[in-house]
């Protein structure tokens, strides 16, 4: 099988025109302030995701009919599964209580293991949120400055890159650093790496050789390279490997007991983890296991951590209840920084006014904030959204290819429309 980009959603999600970024940072953040931790509540979601084909009890309060079991969203997921265009788990939570939980398809077709409420999925670029939180934790401790340049922390980069790319640029995809997965020779080399340390170090060497695509801060381009560099900075500043830092300071405090950067051998062996099935580059259109020939040893700060749907609910709760960051750094991380082109309304699709934040996209949808990230790769299609002022969270995890051009499209857009029409 031809080797492909293991988290390609990066170079197709974000588009913006030329603009100065830094002047927007303070004004937009202050204007949006105060909303980001307000919806956090107590309680657990242990067992919140039901077995395939069952629904959670509606939470108290106003639950739109379209989001209840048997409603519009439930019917959409069922149809996608019946058409064999969806395999995975969805979980809708309101006020910390499950409203709808569904699992369809197989986690491992060869061993006949079905997807279930606690199945672990590859997240693709949702991983970037964990990296941004790690950066914010170290900034909160005074060990990282958002206006500091790359060269403050890492050596070996060209002088113009080291002196002009700031932490802020890398977090907001305005660095010009591009996508290391597209660099000549990267994939061939990546399949020879035999340790997590080698993955981090050798990927960084490829990034060091890549030129800047534009002057940092003058325009935007989604950048896997920038997020890998941020992970390397986390490792350098903290004294831990990137992977251990996220395990100890993000997954652990958030109670994300099934989340990890599993290696490819662990992924193959663990029956809890869904295998990614792709039909990309298959002349017959038949799906094959993308673990063979697409994913190298381990994910990176830019993508491919693995987690269950309940774990993502736990992460969101920990973040908004300030278990991971102090309130001011939670707000700084999640509040909008750089506006992107508005997305016009369409049939069943509300107009959206998106901003890049630090890792997340923070959008205005029907006059409500929607915060989250999506991910896509061969056999990976994911989306995490939360709605701070409405106290909803929507998790969508699939081990099939994304069927459309945008990772968060389809069910994620439908959920956004139904949740924000209140």
Automatic annotation (TrEMBL):
Pfam families: Beta-lactamase. Residues 41-52 have a biased composition (Low complexity). InterPro entries: AmpC-like (IPR050491), Beta-lactam-related (IPR001466), Beta-lactam/transpept-like (IPR012338), TAT_signal (IPR006311). Coiled coil: none annotated. Keywords: Membrane. GO terms for cellular component: membrane. SUPFAM superfamilies: beta-lactamase/transpeptidase-like (SSF56601). It is found in: Membrane. Residues 73-405 form the Beta-lactamase-related domain. Its main location: membrane. It comes from the Bacteria. Residues 41-65 are annotated as: Disordered. This is CubicO group peptidase, beta-lactamase class C family.
């Amino acid at each position: 099988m031809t080797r492909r980009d293991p988290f390609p959603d990066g170079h197709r999600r974000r588009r913006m025109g030329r603009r100065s970024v830094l002047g927007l940072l303070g004004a937009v953040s202050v204007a949006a302030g105060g909303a980001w931790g307000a919806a956090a509540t107590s309680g657990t979601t242990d067992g919140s995701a039901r077995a395939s084909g069952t629904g959670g009890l509606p939470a108290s309060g106003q639950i739109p009919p379209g989001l209840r079991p048997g409603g519009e969203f439930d019917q959409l997921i069922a149809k996608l599964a019946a058409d064999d265009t969806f395999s995975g788990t969805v979980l809708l939570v309101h006020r910390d209580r499950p409203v709808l939980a569904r699992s369809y398809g197989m986690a491992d077709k060869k061993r006949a293991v079905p997807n279930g409420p606690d199945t672990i999925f590859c997240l693709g670029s949702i991983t970037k949120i964990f990296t941004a939180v790690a950066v914010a934790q170290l900034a909160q401790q005074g060990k990282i400055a958002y206006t500091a340049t790359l060269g403050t922390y890492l050596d070996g980069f060209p002088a113009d890159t080291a002196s002009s790319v700031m932490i802020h640029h890398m977090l907001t995809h305005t660095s010009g650093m591009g996508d290391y997965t597209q660099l000549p020779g990267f994939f061939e080399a990546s399949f020879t790496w035999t340790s997590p340390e080698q993955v981090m170090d050798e990927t960084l060497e490829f990034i060091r050789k890549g030129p800047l695509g534009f002057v940092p801060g003058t325009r935007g381009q989604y950048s896997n390279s920038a997020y890998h560099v941020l992970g390397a900075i986390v490792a350098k500043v903290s004294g831990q490997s990137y992977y251990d830092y996220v395990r100890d300071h993000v997954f652990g405090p958030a109670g994300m007991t099934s989340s990890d950067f599993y290696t490819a051998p662990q992924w193959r062996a663990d029956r809890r983890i869904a295998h990614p099935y792709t039909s990309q580059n298959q002349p017959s259109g038949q799906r094959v296991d993308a673990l063979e020939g697409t994913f190298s040893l381990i994910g990176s700060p830019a993508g491919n951590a693995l987690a269950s749907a309940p774990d993502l609910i736990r992460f969101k709760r920990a973040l908004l209840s300030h278990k991971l960051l102090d309130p001011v750094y939670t707000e700084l991380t999640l509040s909008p920084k750089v506006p992107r082109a508005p997305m016009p309304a369409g049939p069943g699709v509300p107009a959206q006014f998106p901003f890049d934040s630090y890792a997340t996209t923070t959008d205005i949808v029907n006059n409500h904030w929607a915060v989250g990230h999506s991910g896509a790769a061969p056999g990976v299609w994911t989306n995490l959204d939360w709605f701070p002022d409405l106290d909803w969270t929507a998790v969508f995890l699939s081990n099939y290819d994304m069927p459309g051009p945008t990772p968060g499209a389809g069910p994620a857009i439908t959920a956004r429309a139904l949740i924000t029409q209140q």
